[in-house]
Amino acid sequence: MIVNKPKKNKENSRYSVLYIIMFIMMGTIVAKLLYLQVYKYDDYKEKADVSSTKFISEEAPRGNIYDSEGNVIATNKQTYTLTYMETVDSTKAFYTTMDKVFKILEDNGESFQDDLALKVDDSGNIYFDFKTDSESSKRTLEIRFKRDRGLNEDIEKEKFGDKEGDYTDEEINEVNDALMEISAEDTFYYLVKSYDLYKLLLPENYTSEQASELAKKYKDATGKEILDDLLKEYSIQQIRRYIVIKDAIKMGSFSGYSNITIASNIKRDTAFIVYQQLNDLPGINVSLKPVRYYPYGTLASAVVGYVSSISSSQKESYELRGYDVSTDLIGVSGIESAFEEQLKGTKGGTTVKVNSQGRTTEELFKLESYPGNNVHLTINKDVQYAAQEALKDQIFKLQSEGLTSATRGAVVVIEVNTGRVIAMASYPDFDPNDFAIPSELSTEKYNEYFNPDLEEFGTKHIQSSGAKGTLDELFPINEDGAREDKYDLYPRSMFNYATQGLLPPGSTFKPLTALAALTEGAITEDFTVNDVGLWTSEYTGNQVLENIQKIGNGITDVRKALQVSSNYFFYETAIRLYVKNGANIDALNSIARYAWKFGLGVEGNKNASTGIQIFENFGQTYNFVSWRNSLAKNAKYSIVPDLEKGVYYGYTFVPFDISDISTDSDELKELKTSLKDNIKETLLKVGTDEQITSQDEYAKSILSTVKKIMEVSDKYKENVAKYEADNNTKVDINSQAKIVSNAIAYFTVTNQTSEITSPISLVQDAIGQSMNAFTPLQMANYVATLANGGTRYKVSIVDKVTSPTGEVIQEFTPEVIESNPIDPEILQIIKDGMRRVNTSPSNGTVYQLFGNFPIEVVGKTGTADFGTSEQYEFQGRKAYGNYISFAPMDNPEIAIFSTIYDGNRGGNSAYIHKAIYEAFFKDELLNINPNYAATSETFQKYVSQAPADNNQEAEEQNQQQEAQGEVQQEETQQEQQTE
Predict the structure, then answer these.
(1) What element of type H or E holds 354?
(2) CATH code assigned at 330
(3) Which of 609, 589, 586 is nearest to 599 (CA)?
(4) Residue range of the domain that includes 753
(5) Tens-place pLDDT, residues 298-353
(6) Where, by residue number, does the polypeptide cross the bilayer (predicted)?
């Protein structure tokens, strides 16, 4: 029998062959890898460097901003920029290269781009300089600074080891607290070590062995030890320069940038010096970059706005919109901000091959950048210049005459029949060119704009104005340790007073009161009063009010009342309106119903806006609901001081405290809040079916809360002990609770309710006081609506948006918001009265300006109070100087409102109007009188000296830019041929 055996040997031999083949293949691969990566490393590395690709981004120019005549208000100019690209050669020669670059810049009076918040002063002190006066913002910026540079990593490792996953909010806060304990000096030491600055000690042409030895020497050294050695050969300022560049490289790498900017906006001569030395400056390149440019500087700065870097709080939002938050600039205010999406261009760039020195050897792909769209304003450059310069000069004139607190103002000019803004000025202004290159905004300029020295300003203000308030009272130190402008006394350049400043209109409001009363039939054209100066009425509890002149005006009708600005007449007019409309709650809105039609506030929840395209505040006129809401909201502040004194009207009690105190127990805080909310809610019911009318019933309803506060409050117990000791008596808590409850009930149900429902506020409203507060823009729109007979237009400061090739993308045509035709006879009465303001010799300033002006101008002065005489003295302020006008009288074209804060008299701002009319009606005035210019100082100053037109400048600039581009291209080609 034959048995077959398995052929094990043959199978084993097959596997052996397979193993041998695999071994040979793997060996071959490993050998090849060793050959390529070790033996031939230098050769292939050089080839890789020579042919490596980079994407060179190209900035897109923002669109232009033009005035109504095509003059360029904002554009771009091509500037030379010095950049650095990391390559093998440039990295090896970094310090040598930077030394040469710094010398070129210094020799030519240029500065390198320095955005690093870690500074070193002239004495060698290291500190952080975050451009904000808020301690909380400084903390946020400092933490972000340190996290971006990795200082948090060691802290996290020490505290949490190798924890996986996200950190909790508590853990993040713990790390942040630890980061804040790292001083500026220690941060500097960290960067010295992190950026390997020990390499500064290497010789110029160092070998790899020398580099290796030095690296070993400083491997375990601290940043301070490395810095100490560096300071033997370099100053700390020089060392910081290298850190600035190294830091920019690191921060740029986060955004995937191969190029970082060394210097911006360098001169052409400097650029060509660099060109000539490019072969000795590996990694350095010079390119042309568009930079925002405002040819007229401060002209219309409040309208145009400015561009700036993206703030840390906005980064996430703009990243999602495709912005590079590390380099892109955005519009921050004005048109630049409101039309950001239109103005910003589309970035382009070129993918290129570069050699080991960072020089372009071949262009692979180019993505064209595309300019942004253009915005055409309704602003007229010449009228804007007259408005802006006259406003500034008048403020300076008032200061020279002793009104030192007159430091702010605004003026708005509106086209009567379209709602288009012809001019808008705010003072103080600013130069938007200061922000075009963020790194060039000096600390001094930044502080002037955003972080003023309020201690210095406050001291000067008190000395010059005679303010009775102390520095700490007017400019108290807040929780962050910085002074704050509690009463808004500092003139702010970055605040558009024309669209954001809310102020009382004063007597410039009287034409509206006259219109309401004449239309309602509360008065007639022939109605007169005997103005004796002091006015009383049974409807206001016989409260005595007076004329601003402190004297009477005799028999006065509506025309004379406007001419002499008789408060007496308009007080009486308001009461007649009140009675005419029922002498009830609804009658309190007798004037408000007309004010709303003219854009002076809104009724209810309607859209609170003039329609202008830039940011605005929007003020409200006196009306019952708004007044009630205001008093209800502020009641808790009004009653507190009296309760703390222990005396309110006929009630005397142990001082009782309901103010917010951080050390109060939660129970006490809740009780105090409950009582104050009760007062507020009770007042909000005034004028409704739920209004509480019984003082006794209200006192009973709050008694338990008041008593409980007394039992819980340690401060109240201290007050009781002191009261008992001072008065040698025993305090009964139950009795005290009843007295305090009755005092609060009297305040709420009697005092505040009476103030809410009294027509005294309507009376004060009639002369532009009470709670009236409007922006100059609202006021100008009101005057324009009055001038054209009752048609209120949507205000516009933009005419159209066009593409770079001139196609109209969006057009802003005049839009009627509301039409309330004014009876022509009534309008003529008001015009007559306003014309008398300007033609009456007794009106001094305005008569001198417009009494003999060739074009009939109607106007109204307004000396508007913001508070009591005690408040004026305490703050060192004066009344607002307001003035309204429109012209020509019979066929109005433009309307104007101007204000000078602390201008003291309305007539003090009328001077601005004359300059505006001369600029707007220039041709007509010269046609009437060819010698007019020689007879008018304002014409010579504000019309004849207006800046030249530049509507051809853009085309010429583009041609210049193209020529510069051709020069650069030719030089680059020559450079490549040389290489």
Answers:
(1) strand 348-354
(2) 3.90.1310.10
(3) 609
(4) 624-762
(5) 999 999 999 998 877 787 788 788 787 777 889 999 999 999 999 998 775 555 56
(6) 15-35
